[in-house]
Amino acid sequence: MRRIATGLVLGLAWFLLLFYGSFSLFWAVLLLLSAAALFEYAGLLQRRAGGDHVLTLILLGLLPTIGAYFGRIEPVTAGLVLALLLLFALTLCRFGMLGNGFDFVGRGTFGIVYGGLLPAHLVLIMARPHGAAWLAVLTGLIFASDTGAYYSGRLFGRHKLCPAISPGKTVEGFLGGLLAGVAAGTGLGRLLVPGSHLLPLALAALLVTCVGVMGDLLESVLKRSVAVKDSGALLPGHGGILDRADSLLVAAPVFYYLMVWGLITG
User: Fold this and answer.
1) How far apart (Å, rounded) are the C-alpha atoms in residues 115 and 121?
2) Rounded to 5 degrees, what are φ and ψ at 29?
3) Which residues pair with 160 in a beta bridge?
4) Average pLDDT score over the chain
5) Rounded distance, CA 251 to CA 233, Å?
6) Most confident of 45-49, 150-154, 248-252
7) pLDDT digits (tens, 9 = 90+) for 11-23
8) Which regions of the chain does DSSP assign to beta strands (E)?
9) Sequence ranges of the domains in the chain
10) Per-residue pLDDT tens digits for 254-263
């Protein structure tokens, strides 16, 4: 019940933010969520070597999302490059105290990309024409895929999808989630976005759903690597921000470039 209640509150808040909030408010909320995601990631690192400099990692990781305020990819890329250069400089200055400098750079780079660059693309989508509607399509697609995978896996699941990473996921669940994601993405796109076309939407939904599953499994790799069940405890019944947004984070850049290259509206 707590999980359902949290999900309903999150869904309503997201809907209100998309369709009734300003772009600046959306950017500010994403900035806060990115900071929370980076904090969770730093918390995972603290269970292994390389978990120091938490505040530094959060500040560096926020630079791409800060750049997304301008609604263009160039400031986002500039923020990413600046964050990486500062990370490299920190590694050089503190090398003698890091233990494993290469490990520090690798973990820091992944955090900047995962917690900063990926969510920045949600802001970039919002800045596009019909951005709120497209974000509703994307989040609806991901939600439908997750829900379809859960119930079809429980009802029909027999064959493990990636047992070494996530023993509970099945091939049947993946296929059910795929069908639900494609149906939701196609239906919402046709309903919410003027000029969208059926076939491009269906193909885009198919690709984005598959990428979303990859994002879910990627976060499972992170948690399994540090032997934890959830990335955090911010969301009752759901875990942390990364637990709830893992699929969306990885799917957002793919969806954004499909939009930029005109492959969705066709």
Assistant:
1) 11
2) -65, -45
3) 170
4) 89
5) 23
6) 248-252
7) 899 999 999 999 9
8) 160-162, 166-170
9) 22-127, 129-266
10) 999 999 998 8
